[in-house]
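Incident log entry.

Two folding requests arrived from the same account within the same minute. Monitoring flagged them as a possible duplicate submission, but the sequences differ. Recording both here for audit purposes.

Request one:
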Amino acid sequence: TKTKTTAMDLQELLNFQPSRASKRPLEVLTPSPSPSHKQPRRSHKYPPTPGHSLGQPIKLSDISSPVIQLNAAPVKEIPVVENTAKSRKIEEERLLKLLAAAEEEDDLLPAPHEEVTLSSLKKLLLSLNKKSTLNQQLRVKYSDEPTRFMESELELYGEIQKLRIVSTCPESYPQLIELDFHNTLLQLLGHENADIAMCVADLLREMLDVDPLNEGVEGAELLSQQLLEGQVMSLLVSLLGKLDEKNAEESQGIHNILGLVENMAEFQQQEVLNSSGEQGLLIWLLKRIRIRTFDANKLYSTEILSILLQNNTGNQQLLGAKNGIDCLLEAVSLYKRREPVTGDEIEMVENLFDCLCMSLTHAPNRVKFLEGEGLQLMILLLKDRKMCRRSSLKVLNHALQGREGVENCVKFIELYGLRTIFPFFMLPNKTCKKNAISGMEQDEHVISILLSLIRNVQGQQKERVLTKFLEKDMEKAERIVELHFFYKQRSSLSDSIISKEIEKSDDEPDEDEIYMKRLDGGLFVLQQIDLIILEVMYYAPVMLRERIHKLFEQQRVSIVTVKDVVVEFLQQLGDGA
């Protein structure tokens, strides 16, 4: 009778399943999983027994560490090593200990089917406050004895984990904010234990990862606003300074913090941009991208930096003041001798170039770009690095524009940059297959660079540019006229499409919006081309003017069409033009 009772107890244990999901998924051993069934992840705590695979049956006698078989066959089908009370008792004790540990971990998480109510959330918040207060008291009382407050920190960590369920009901955020929920989390974000602070940052990231179409978006906006008012960016920067990326968990913590910043920017973009510069995040990002090794955090850092620099003069100015231009050029220079390999690395390099372009919209940064030998680097990349050509052209376009780009234009010509840029000017109009670069985008950058060079230099420098149009039987003059007719046709086709859209629409047409569509359809590049033609016609020798006139006559088109395009361009600029 005793033996029968023991066998029944063991059967109940082997077939036992917790009523709620455990924190760590237990390993399921099945004799022959179907192809469509995804293999469970191996437990790191209990490695598989040598000589067995996950798809094979396993004997209790081969188990060196206790493993639960949730889908096991009845106990009578499982062979036992020795049919003795002692061996059964040992196996039974092991299973009981493991089940007790699983239930203990299971208690940290709410039941998966439990209804989330405001009342239950209040209970969680109250429990969190109690655990946090107790932990702080013990830390003060036993500051020199960490073991005395370690248990309270484990309990506090567990309470924070329970709060993850809050992210499933963003419509409750306003009520939680009234209960000072956000200030509790801000306080814990500055906790001395980095693990607790990282857990809070990850919780906030999940809470603000709300679909814009979700009904709770207003609650997420309010929470983001309250966090920013509570100097959350300063706390995050302080936490970032404590973390060591050599540790895998802390590296993931940094990634989660950057995700939190990105989520906040979705709701409070201007406030995030301002506070990031003022409270030190931009400086941390600049230091991070200087690390030569590529990884996911470096990619994410470049993405966040590009967000902070977009249409924000304050951050652009701060970047220039903190030697940010040199940091960006140093990061790009790593690709002088090699191409980026993976898709993520290519994306990171493009982000670096975008950051340079946005920084150069702040005029004083163009001087720093010149002093940092940015022109030399871009010319080198244009010659040798196919993957970086489009981005290098874009950066040069920003660096040479306007009156603030005069010094860069002069230096570009002195560095024999004309030898590099004109081969791109002579490329035929077609879509470049590499990286799906459109010919129109490349033409736009090249034409804008040439126009800046012609307008921003004088004397001998201007003659060097115009002389290029006389070389090789004036082939570059033929090319500029060819581009005029190509983009004239493209612009006319775009205008006809826009006119049809206006006719079909019942709304009142917006003139500014229509003009922007026309610019995108090819009008902008056409304007730049015709401005170059007028400059060449005015300053070039007579023989070059005659050649351009003849090229227009061959197409039976008056050169007055160039004047009409430029007049429209000047009218859009306004009286000050």
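Request two (distinct sequence, not a duplicate):
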Amino acid sequence: MAAVIPQIQQNDSWYLSLLGLAEAFRTANPPKIKLCIHCLESIFQFQPPPHIEARTHLQLGTLLFTHTKNIDLARSHLEKACMLSQSIQINSFDDVKFEASSVLAEIYQQLNQLHLAKPVLRKAIGVSQLSAYWHCRLLFQLAQIHAYEKDIISACELLGVGADYACMARSDYSRCLFLLSKGMLLLLDKKLTEVHQVLSTCGTLIESFTGNPTQQESLKVFFLILQVCHFLLAGQSVKPCLKQLQQSIQTITVLHSDDEPLSSNPADLFHWLPKEHMCVLVYLVTVMHSMQAGYMDKAQKYTDKALLQIGKLKILDSHPILSAFQLMLLEHIIMCRLVMGNKSLAIQEISQACLVCQQQPKLFTTHGAQLHTLLGLYSMSMNCMESAEAQFTTACRLTTQTELWIFISLNLAIVYLRCGNRQQEAVSLLERIQPENIRTNSHCLKAAAFYVKGLQSFFQNRYNDAKRYLRETLKMSNTEDLNRLTACSLVLLGHIFLSLGNTRESLNMVMPAMQLASKIPDVHVQLWASALLKDLYQLSGDPIRESEGYQMHTTFSSQLLKDHFQSSQLSEHALIQWTEGPCPVQQPPDGASASLL
């Protein structure tokens, strides 16, 4: 506050005194915000000149916005600051003009008045070309609002304008930030060809970047995260890229950015994410890859590390992005628990995910479909098929994402197939998801669609069709390192060959399925495979191995039954009945919440 004192006359010592006193209250430990506000309000009693009045309105509006819940008064002060600043022709006053516009737009966005925020920013962008820092910042801010509205085209146009402006301002760093942000939005919009073009341009720029090391590594981490997500979205192998990313994040954590000189170019004064947030994000994409590839132990390990880091960061600064990261990590670890047969942990973590959404209510809007999908998967694992159907139906209604809709629909089809008397519903649903022409860029989903078609053919005793579909799944899952789909396809093929009386071929399928399921580990595939092994050894007259198979099957069955009972006794189990209205999970007292999260 004290660092931005306007030009004043000698007889304005009252202003310096009040401003210094306000700053002393603001920086006190703890801050005395109420007294700080009183000091600033006192300035108006002296009928100050317009430039001091405008700056004071900005300071009051910012303080009220950041430290109080009086958002209407904050908005009023900032609107006055914007109005006054339009008529002031002082070059050094531009910062007040643009900061007031930026903070006012933030308030409008928080009040969900985006129709008011956008013209404020557009007007400021139109007159800020000579102020490189503010021009770039305002472009980023307006692009973010368009992205929030899902107007990806307008957001990308603004980011393109920003990249061109940064190039003219001789800021390769901000040019890369604008382009990578554009690539991120194109990735969300599934425009993979355009993503590839943007990433190719950025890769060249980053390699030739000559700025300070922290900026270069920061750009490299952003770039590699987009590359990993690009490959994950396409269901392709990401190992080399992920290894580069992990090396890059290790490099950036040991760099001492405080010792590096600040750039003299105002357009360079941005950063994508703090290092600590980058570390969490790298953990998250590592977990995403581990889940897709079927490395559950690795997924658990990195989720634990990331959640611990988030817990520490939230003590210092509860930034909304941390809650988003936390929720995505929980979503992945819940699926991991279900695969490993830990249903009791899974339902407790679903409850935790609901609590995270209650702390940041906007997350219910963006992740509501995912929560109901997880409840559907949990219900399936508990053999509560009616609840599973209700949850998947709710999730389908809530989602606007094609890939998530396909994932939900494939699981709903499995529910219908497992019910026995719902074959027609399964047929009708799967007619809309033909794997040969499915509308997705994800190899993983295409492979899963072939698997479900194979499962449907198996239930219909169309074994040749089932084998054809499952071989397509194996071809795709082996190419893209999708171990869980490989294990599921092998064990189902083993079951088909056993049904056809071909015990030798069945054993050739079931043995590698069991080995792969043990490596994942996937307890449900292990249970299925051990049952088949027991029958196969009985048919081949091998009582010793038959006994081993029986013992394995009993062990897995007992483990699942014990966990099934524990899960059914938990209060969180009642969540499977929630399909509409507010979430029934209640926010615990602060102490209890801290111990949970």
